[in-house]
Amino acid sequence: MSHTIVLIPGDGIGPEVTEATKRVLAAAGAEIQWLERVAGQAALDRGESDLLPASTVQAILDHGVALKGPCTTPIGGGFSSINVALRKKLNLYGAVRPIRSIDGVKTRYDDVDLIVVRENTEGLYSGIENIITEGVITSLKVATEDACRRIAIFGFEYCRSRGRRKVTVFHKANIMKLSDGLFIRCAREEWERAYSDLQYEERIIDAACMAIVQDPSQFDVILCENLYGDVISDLCAGLVGGLGVTPGANFGEQHAVFEAVHGTAPDIAGQNLANPLALLMTGVMMLRHLAETRDDPKCTDVADRIRDAYNHCLTHGEKTRDLGGSLGTREFADAIIKQLR
Questions:
Q1: Is 110 annotated as catalytic?
Q2: Where are the domain boundaries for CATH 3.40.718.10 in the chain?
């Protein structure tokens, strides 16, 4: 069974890591037809008038699944986040970030195995900001019952479908009593209604952050609103080696975009120094999604082979420089492909 997947290479190191990922997936036997589209600075560079061209959005609407490299988001000015715009246009309300310790990547922890589930469409990332008067700016945090309840159901379902045991909701409802209060109320009600077979707890986010670095093994699935989920998922990535070893995905009712969660790293772009592992792991996550949603068990076999190949490389010292090795982007992909044969 062949699958048409929209490919958005992105900016900076994006084209390099997407090319490496394509090569590995092809070598492993993934039957994928890539439909390349642009977004972000790459769209402007190619003569598009819009940072997120309608043709890119339409391609994902037509084919359902996309694999995306990192896109530039200027800090403190310039154009708004392409990632946020894409999630809103496609209603990709559920972000999933698996965080696992990896053999061959040495960190202070060796027992991390958790999943961060993040509401992806509202909160402070709604982008509603106003200048009240000179020197005074407000940012509006949006919370709706529909979105809070939807992500709670998504989080519980994801926990159950992956054979996990517990959902922990991170919040600051002691201060933001209405918005975060709504979030935990919806989560609690959905747990009581249909998911009481799972363990459930609520933690105030500042104390929860301390608990994560003390003992990450006490957490299983972490459920957060938008901003908290963004921060917590990066914090947890630091427990296992950084953003270069963590995949990510954004799910809606009908569409899914799988993306590397690291930045564009323009300082090393085009130098064969980027680590493609995060996007490759994301590709594995995408293959498992295809296996589940399109009834294609071969995708599971291909995903397992790729996972075993990059695990072998890491445990035998075949790594990129950011992980303490000496391989370039292409050479790391070559090493993985060699293990597939």
A1: no
A2: 1-92+243-341, 108-240
The catalytic residue among 22, 68, 172, 319 is: 172
Specify whether 228 is catalytic.
no
Architecture of domain 108-240: 3-Layer(aba) Sandwich (3.40)
Give the pLDDT of residue 74. 57
Given a cut of 70, the residues of the chain with pLDDT beneath it are 73-80
Task: Tell me which residue of 234, 249, 263, 252 sits closest to 41, measured CA to CA.
Answer: 263
Q: Which of 125, 158, 200, 310 is catalytic?
A: 125
**Right CATH for 1-92+243-341 from 3.40.718.10, 3.40.50.1010, 3.40.50.2000, 1.10.3720.10:** 3.40.718.10
How far, in Å, CA of 205 to CA of 201, rounded? 12
- pTM, entire model: 0.94
Nearest by Cα to 27 from 220, 221, 201, 280:
280
93, 180, 195, 230: the catalytic one is 230
Catalytically annotated residue among 206, 215, 308, 338:
206
pLDDT at 327: 98
